[in-house]
């Protein structure tokens, strides 16, 4: 019986691995040029850690286990709690602002579907220690810096931005108590993801008062920041958070990415720890789920027993992004190349070929050879399948201390003295 991969997981054959590396190498390159340093944590953590503040949805999707010492553990479904835990541990020695990035392998027991797996990779970029909305602008810029670099334009993708702080203040005006906010956010987060009647059914369960419910529906239909004050009398906090949103858009304009960004009051985010600015990145044309999302989580470090330090950041997964790049023909991993393939004309030169190949590898050059002592044409075929740039052919000339170097692109051959070949390699 052949054993298939576990439901919701993906095997990465070399061709898939090349695609994954192409995406991840880009994430890392762009993070570094935006001033972020890489970190990582363990693949499993105490189960409790994800139950504190990530929210019910993610808790339901946990892969949990008990170790032999009876500890309740979970495979990480996200890295933000690990980030908060790690930063708290060394808070006194870390220079602020802390600008860190990571590319963790994550697991969520979701229903596998297009763009959603049970195991995936996620690019995380976070800034800790900056209260100003400039940090939110910077992480959004960083995400767009990558997406633009791979060839996605403002016609392809959009960053939808809102503020939970503003929403909380507006909900307060409507008469929603603070304790009711978190479960209400979970419902509002589903507004764009579910059919309208299913959403209204969920909302009715959460908000029984029809008057309040209608006000919420009216509010959620707002399309611009300016419209908010027409819809409701703004409290001082609401006004402040509207002003903060406006300043964020202004900064995004200064950074030259305003054409990618829109205000969308429907962006609430599914995770419970978000406190202020929230955003999600979408493909404009298709029905794909979010490419990524993030926002402010100003209370998480404190909720994890640390000091009161603000934070903001985002996560972008490899699945939706991979589908989108593939659809648009933008996924262009370079095929792996060999510098040299060492071939031989006759069995008697097999050992010499191994010797030359080993010398080339020691000199830092990617090289390979054939295990089979077959004909030269078969070996040359293998060399071109392996994308070798050059082929060294060892034959009768080797008895005169010479070898043939064949350029695989031009088919030009050069006879060269062995010692000269290696001296030239060094220089
Ligand atoms: P999230 O919205 O749960 O946020 O995930 C961010 C992105 O990860 C999603 O938009 C999606 O691209 C990808 N993703 C999530 N679940 C799956 C899945 N099952 N299969 C494939 N891709 C998936 C967070 O995780 C936050 N911790 C991000 C963050 C960092 N917020 C602040 N800093």
Secondary structure elements and their pairing?
Elements: H1 14-33, E1 37-38, E2 44-46, H2 47-53, H3 56-60, E3 64-66, E4 72-75, H4 80-89, E5 98-102, E6 105-107, E7 119-128, H5 134-149, E8 157-163, H6 164-174, H7 178-188, H8 196-206, H9 210-220, H10 225-231, H11 236-254, E9 261-263, E10 277-283, E11 292-296, H12 300-303, E12 311-317, H13 318-327, E13 338-344, H14 350-362, E14 367-369, H15 376-385, E15 388-394, E16 402-407, E17 413-417, H16 418-426
Parallel strand pairs: 1-5, 8-9, 13-14, 13-15
Antiparallel strand pairs: 2-4, 3-4, 5-7, 6-7, 7-12, 8-10, 10-11, 11-12, 15-16, 16-17
Bound molecules: histidyl-adenosine monophosphate.
Histidyl-adenosine monophosphate binds next to strand 7, strand 11, strand 12 and helix 13.
Commentary on this structure:
The protein is of the alpha+beta class. It has helices at residues 14-33, 47-53, 56-60, 80-89, 134-149, 164-174, 178-188, 196-206, 210-220, 225-231, 236-254, 300-303, 318-327, 350-362, 376-385, 418-426; strands at residues 37-38, 44-46, 64-66, 72-75, 98-102, 105-107, 119-128, 157-163, 261-263, 277-283, 292-296, 311-317, 338-344, 367-369, 388-394, 402-407, 413-417. Strands 1, 5, 6, 7, 8, 9, 10, 11 and 12 form a nine-stranded mixed sheet that branches. A five-stranded mixed sheet has the order 14-13-15-16-17, with helices on both faces. A hairpin with an 8-residue loop joins strand 10 (277-283) and strand 11 (292-296). The longest helix has 20 residues, at 14-33. It is elongated, with a radius of gyration of 28 Å. The two termini are 55 Å apart. The mean pLDDT is 94. The protein binds histidyl-adenosine monophosphate (HAM).
